[in-house]
């Protein structure tokens, strides 16, 4: 700070102001994303269900989220009579803070990051645990047995799934050698076969384990039993209305982006551009911008996959959820972690194995995508489903 | 059952009383359940019906026979043709009217179309209650075509009022057979295969439904279940084949029976699959009916004011929810002395009550959805 | 070993069935949606696509109504009110034909018994309005004589199908005007020569108006 000519006495305030500005920008981005994502999800859901989503408010309905937000904003602030007012009022905030605080470590580009903590991943996992407290508070303070059930289910689910989440991330930490997100991205290459997801079979498995665990953390289908509409009428946030409800909603959608961003950063090469080394990217504004666009594009692809999963799959029952976590994901995560360490040692000794594995796994990834395309084309071919409606009468 | 006077002794500090109230997204109508639960595990789910009671049976006592047919639509609005059919069968038995062949074929065509529509909602709603929203909307989309077909046929899309004493209300319009054929070619195997790929084989749905609320064949018979619920438990009983009515003896069709497709015989998954298979069989019947439909009258000559002789009759059809029967007691006048409606959903209520012991609360939703109850049928 | 096989089979089934389902949902992204954006973005006006037999709002062609009141008697819920009164000249007059469109269940039983087809379903259905009283459709504003089939009316002189109901639909948001039932005409003025001053007593039982100019 003294180097920039600012006296020591003010350095704290200047730093605080800079952080506030950054927080404002990040929250602006996050809120905008959350809002537009809600519209986007409804459009995608509509198309998958052979209907159009909201398309009336504004061109193509793009202002729908604004209308929903205004509606919630203007609603009456209801607190149930028997509810616990301080807890009830407090509950949305830990949920929101838990998710919003992750934006500190999310990288956007080579030099654009809130704070490149050298324990970035651990910070991420730890701060999202705050959400559990918020949900429990919400479920309990609403003074309704249904919300209580929803809150407890959600808490059990979230704390259970933090373990495979952490294990899967650790699997990638082994070849990367660092917990910091920016460093991880620098260790990966730009081209797809240099990404960590294709680094070893165990990171490949860890990708799926992390992705599923992150879905469970975010209470998304197929793990959305706590907010299951058909069973608990929105679970722990049944009694919330207006702005308080919006906080929960915002948290859920911001979490989508966070999941996408973390997966991109850790597994999919982050903001690396194929063929360009890191040091060239760091200073160059154009390359940084391209990196930013790539990063956001990859994150949004993953957000799309999450939305796609939500509208395809039914939800798991709570005991099946827990069984899946403890009997499938945790053992697989642990075995992957152990084998990843062995594999990394092998790669240090024989680098050729590493290169071959990367290419082989990249081929496997492409094969999975090709199978998808083939099955989709098969579906399109065997069931043309022209609109058969009343124009035929 | 009167909600206020149920005496439940909850174990102190162990059990809680949950109310799955009359308004709930997954109780398939206005139906209330008092659930005694120890956390997630239920010890009992007591159904409380009556929220949709409209006194249809009492209204029948002051409505002429021909004028009561629109009321039968509302007994089960998803399977309205079946209710119409059962009622006019009961009246015709007492009146001694011979229904023309063509009218019988028209009745069967209307019935089977309605069966497909009803099962689309049944399996779609079951998938929706389990969390998959997409198959329900795909089913609704297909049902729109059926709605358009019935609109061409009788003028209405849900409450058809199509059958009359002695036949049906109108003959097929021009172009109906072609459109129906087009729909059938489009529906099977195209839609059914896609539906199976989307949700019937989905491991999550399978895991949610297998071994949940297994009803064995003996239990099903004891509880008086009918229709797909009974057949999914392994009992080979279908009114269309075993107590034939109308012109069903002319058709060749299989009766799908639960075999424990992925779990045990009689679990919820069997009930789901049996309904999907029944849709395929309905398509088969429709294809045969279209080819063989004879020419003739669409309604027998019946007096304007129907006066039935003194007596009793029972007319039953195999509706999509089981045996839908109308028991009619006539005292010689223009209006029935007593009309009793027997519906499949009412028997399923006892099955739900019994089978809910020991299930999870989440399983209760699956159980309700798999027995395909509709509140208007329970309460009438 | 069996449990290991089951374990692996579980994973395999889950992955394949989930991917298969995802492929189906993805395929729907490439098909056109089936939504018909009624009422303003439809390809054709909706009324042109409705089946001819659609049971929409009931309409009465008074020109061919015979005043038999069969529809009133057949209706299971008594939403039709037909009044036929004797006029001053001894003829029957239709003074009232009300249909309560809010109660009607559009079953079509009345249209089946009508001997001339005067009461029929139209393909109109857009009668939703803010005032419930406007849903009681009054078809008679002036007493008319019922139709006698021997008159042999030319069908092409009738107004187009649905015209009366469309007028109701157009006026549905206008303020409610209380309905005054029509009255049959009184006895015609006496046409006997003015020489005799003997007044013929009125043959009607209404009003007490003498038929004097």
Number of helices of chain B: 14
Strand order of the largest sheet of chain B: 1-2-3
**Biggest β-sheet description of chain B:** 3 strands, antiparallel
Q: Mean pLDDT across all residues of chain C, rounded?
A: 83
CATH superfamily of chain B: Cytochrome-c3 Hydrogenase, chain B
What is the β-strand count of chain B? 8
Instruction: Output the helix-strand order of chain B.
Output: EEEHHHHHEEHHHHHHEEEHHH
Reported by name, the CATH topology of chain B is Cytochrome-c3 Hydrogenase, chain B
Compute the number of strand runs of chain C: 5
Distance between the termini of chain C: 113 Å
What is the helix tally of chain C? Answer: 5
CATH architecture classification of the domain at 46-170 in chain C: 2-Layer Sandwich
User: How many structural units, i.e. domains of chain B?
Assistant: 1
Rg of chain B from C-alpha positions?
A: 21 Å
For the biggest sheet of chain C, the summary is: 3 strands, antiparallel
Question: Can you put this structure into words, describing what you see?
Answer:
The complex is a heterotrimer of chains A (393), B (380) and C (213). In chain A, helix 4 packs antiparallel against helix 6. Helix content of chain A is 68%, strand content 0%. By secondary structure, chain A is mostly helical. By secondary structure, chain B is α+β, with helices and mostly antiparallel strands. Chain B has one domain (56-379): Cytochrome-c3 Hydrogenase, chain B (Orthogonal Bundle), CATH 1.10.645. In chain B, helix 3 packs antiparallel against helix 4. By secondary structure, chain C is of the alpha+beta class. Chain C is 23% helix and 12% strand. A 3-stranded antiparallel β-sheet of chain C has the order 2-3-5, with no helix packed on it. In chain C, strand 2 (80-86) and strand 3 form a beta hairpin. The longest helix of chain C is centred in the N-terminal third of the chain and has 28 residues, at 2-29. Chains A and B meet through helix 7, helix 10 and helix 14 of A and strand 1, helix 4, helix 5, helix 6 and helix 7 of B.
Task: Compile the SSE list and pairings.
The complex is a heterotrimer of chains A (393), B (380) and C (213).
Chain A: H1 8-48, H2 64-73, H3 85-90, H4 92-100, H5 120-128, H6 130-141, H7 145-176, H8 181-187, H9 201-217, H10 229-232, H11 243-266, H12 278-283, H13 285-310, H14 318-349, H15 351-382
Chain B: E1 16-20, E2 32-38, E3 41-48, H1 56-60, H2 69-73, H3 80-95, H4 101-130, H5 134-154, E4 163-164, E5 167-168, H6 176-200, H7 203-209, H8 217-223, H9 228-232, H10 239-242, H11 268-292, E6 311-319, E7 322-330, E8 338-342, H12 344-355, H13 361-370, H14 375-379
Helix pairs in contact in B: 3-4, 4-5, 4-11, 4-13, 5-6, 6-11
Chain C: H1 2-29, H2 46-49, E1 58-60, H3 70-74, E2 80-86, E3 92-100, H4 109-113, E4 119-121, E5 136-138, H5 163-170
């Amino acid at each position: 700070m003294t180097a920039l000519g600012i006296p020591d006495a003010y350095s704290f305030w200047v730093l605080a102001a800079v952080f506030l500005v950054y927080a404002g920008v990040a929250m602006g981005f996050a809120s905008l994303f959350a809002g537009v994502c809600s519209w986007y999800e409804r459009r995608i859901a509509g198309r998958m269900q052979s209907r159009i989503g909201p398309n009336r408010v504004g061109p193509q309905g793009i202002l729908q989220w604004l209308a929903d937000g205004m509606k919630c904003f203007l609603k009456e602030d209801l607190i149930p009579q028997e509810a616990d007012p301080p807890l009830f009022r407090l509950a949305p905030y830990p949920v929101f803070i838990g998710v919003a605080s992750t934006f500190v470590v999310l990288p956007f580009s080579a030099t654009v990051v809130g704070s490149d903590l050298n324990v970035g991943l651990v910070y991420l996992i730890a701060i999202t645990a705050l959400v559990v407290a918020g949900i429990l508070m919400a479920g309990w303070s609403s003074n309704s047995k249904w919300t209580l059930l929803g809150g407890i289910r959600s808490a059990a689910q979230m704390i259970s799934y933090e373990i495979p989440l952490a294990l899967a991330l650790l699997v990638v930490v082994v070849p990367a050698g660092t917990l910091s997100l920016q460093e991880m991205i620098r260790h990966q290459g730009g081209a797809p076969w240099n990404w960590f997801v294709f680094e070893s079979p165990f990171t490949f498995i860890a990708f799926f384990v992390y992705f599923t665990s992150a879905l469970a953390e975010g209470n998304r289908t197929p793990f959305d039993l706590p907010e299951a509409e058909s069973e608990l009428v929105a679970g722990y946030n049944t009694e919330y209305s207006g702005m308080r409800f919006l906080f929960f909603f915002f948290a859920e959608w911001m979490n989508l982006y966070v999941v996408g961003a973390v997966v991109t950063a850790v597994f999919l090469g982050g903001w690396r551009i194929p063929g360009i080394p890191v040091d060239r990217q760091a200073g160059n504004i154009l390359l940084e911008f391209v990196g930013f666009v790539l990063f956001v594009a990859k994150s949004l692809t993953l957000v799309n996959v999450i939305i796609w999963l939500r509208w395809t799959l039914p939800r798991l029952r709570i005991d099946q959820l827990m069984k899946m976590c403890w009997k499938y994901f945790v053992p697989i995560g642990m075995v992957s972690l152990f084998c990843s360490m062995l594999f990394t040692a092998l790669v240090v000794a024989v680098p050729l194995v590493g290169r071959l594995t990367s290419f082989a796994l990249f081929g496997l990834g492409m094969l999975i995508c090709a199978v998808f395309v083939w099955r989709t084309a098969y579906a399109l071919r065997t069931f043309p489903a022209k609109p058969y409606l009343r124009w035929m009468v | 059952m009167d909600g206020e006077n149920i005496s439940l002794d909850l174990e102190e500090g162990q059990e809680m009383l949950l109310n799955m109230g009359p308004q709930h997204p997954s109780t398939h109508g206005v139906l209330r359940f008092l659930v005694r639960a120890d956390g997630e595990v239920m010890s009992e789910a007591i159904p409380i019906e009556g929220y949709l009671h409209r006194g249809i049976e009492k209204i029948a006592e002051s409505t002429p026979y021909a004028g009561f047919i629109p009321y039968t639509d509302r007994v089960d609005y998803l399977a309205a043709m079946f209710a119409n059919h059962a009622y006019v069968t009961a009246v015709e038995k007492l009146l001694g009217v011979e229904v023309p062949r063509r009218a019988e074929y028209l009745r069967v065509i209307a019935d089977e179309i309605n069966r497909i529509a009803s099962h689309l909602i049944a399996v779609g709603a079951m998938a929706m209650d389990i969390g998959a929203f997409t198959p329900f909307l795909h089913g609704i989309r297909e049902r729109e075509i059926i709605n358009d077909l019935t609109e061409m046929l009788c003028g209405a899309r849900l409450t058809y009022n199509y059958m009359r004493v002695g036949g049906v209300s109108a003959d097929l319009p021009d172009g109906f057979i072609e459109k129906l054929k087009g729909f059938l070619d489009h529906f099977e195997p195209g839609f059914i295969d896609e539906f199976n790929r989307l949700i019937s084989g989905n491991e999550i749905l399978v895991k949610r439904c297998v071994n949940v609320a297994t009803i064995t064949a003996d239990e099903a018979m004891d509880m008086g279940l009918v229709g797909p619920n009974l057949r999914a438990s392994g009992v080979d009983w279908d009114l269309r084949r075993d107590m034939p009515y109308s012109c069903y003896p002319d058709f060749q069709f299989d009766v799908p029976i639960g075999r424990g497709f992925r779990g045990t015989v009689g679990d919820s998954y069997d009930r789901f699959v049996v309904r999907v298979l029944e849709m395929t069989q309905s398509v088969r019947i429709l294809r045969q009916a279209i080819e063989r439909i004879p020419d003739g009258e669409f309604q027998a000559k019946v007096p304007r004011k129907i006066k039935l002789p003194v007596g009793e009759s029972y007319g039953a059809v195999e509706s999509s929810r089981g045996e839908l029967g109308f028991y009619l007691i006539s005292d010689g006048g223009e209006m029935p002395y007593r009309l009793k409606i027997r519906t499949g959903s009412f028997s399923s209520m006892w099955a739900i009550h019994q089978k809910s012991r020991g299930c999870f609360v989440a399983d209760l939703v699956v159980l309700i959805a798999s027995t395909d109850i509709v509140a208007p049928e329970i309460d009438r | 070993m069996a449990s290991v096989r089951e374990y692996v089979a579980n994973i395999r089934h889950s992955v394949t069935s989930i991917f298969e389902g995802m492929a189906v949902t993805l395929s729907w992204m490439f098909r056109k949606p089936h939504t018909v954006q009624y009422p303003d973005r439809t390809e054709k006006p909706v009324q042109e696509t409705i089946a001819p037999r659609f049971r929409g709002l009931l309409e009465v062609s008074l020109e061919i109504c015979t005043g038999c009141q069969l529809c009133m008697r057949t209706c299971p819920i008594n939403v039709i009110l037909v009044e036929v009164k004797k006029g001053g000249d001894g003829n029957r007059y239709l003074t009232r034909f009300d249909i309560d469109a809010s109660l009607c269940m559009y079953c079509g039983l009345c249209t089946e018994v009508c001997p001339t087809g005067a009461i029929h379903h139209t393909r109109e259905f857009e009668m939703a309005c803010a005032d419930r009283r406007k849903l009681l459709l009054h078809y008679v504003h002036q007493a008319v004589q019922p139709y006698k089939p021997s008159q042999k009316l030319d069908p092409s002189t009738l107004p187009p199908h649905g015209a009366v109901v469309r007028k109701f639909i157009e006026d549905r948001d206008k303020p409610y005007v209380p309905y005054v039932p029509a009255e049959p005409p009184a006895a015609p003025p006496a046409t006997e020569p003015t020489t005799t001053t003997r007044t013929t007593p009125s043959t009607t039982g209404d009003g007490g108006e003498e038929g004097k100019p």
